[in-house]
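Model the whole thing, not chain by chain.
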Amino acid sequence: MLKELDPLLLSQLRLAIMSYLMVAREAEFNALREQTGATAGNLSAQISKLQEAGYLEVEKTFRNNYPLTVCRVTERGVEAFEAFYKDLKTYFGQ
Amino acid sequence: MEQEEKVLNPQESLRVIRETIDLAKRGVGESGFQFLLWGWLVVAASLAEYYMLVNGYGVRAHLAWMLMPVVGMPVSLIYEIRRDRKQKERNTIREWYGYLWLGFGISLILALVTSILRQTPPVPMVLIVAGFATFMSGILIRFRPLVFGGIVLWLGAALCLAVAVREHSLVEAGAIALGYLVPGYMLNQKTRKNHA
């Protein structure tokens, strides 16, 4: 029987954020915005959802007196992504 | 305000994952610059060494290799430091890439020291080590011309067995031109296209 896919990752932007961070282990908010092409508001909202689920951790610091937001995938996020990818492959019989 | 997000089907999910990971791989930031820099320096040093060897300069011919530490190292370091400053993310593949070339540097120094102490020709060892690093770079950033470049360098190492030691410099110049410079220019062109 096919497993139900993680609904949190069945969103274009959330999945793009997680996929990107699986390779780039951490990224600044602005880099994620450039790479995904999302608006700051939408990106921020989706990052919050991933953070609430424990998939991401967000660090807010300062650089040269400007606020700097850095996102990174947590262990739980890695596990969730890997499980999602595995479940996804079963859909295509891979 | 709550932001609505497009819900994906499995096919679209797989596409998003593949496209995004490909994008992240480009984050390695390899523009071919290092291949072009070192490629041209090796070609110049090899040809200068060969010219001096056939014109009776003896061991002084090896001084041509001073181009590497005197020109190559500072230019390469300045380029990497500048690039790192611009970087807004950590990238696993870039880290592996960096370790790969660090490993290459250490292997190269050990190979050169061994060949000097044992008085064996250094070129085959240099081409074997450079071939491995180039081959793996191509695999890491999924750029096939670099994979072929690595194979060309290995073939150059094998060719050294068939020619006189004095001719090794020429084999090295040819192998590096094909295995480093050609993929280096192709990578450079691809990067420019991606940024256009």
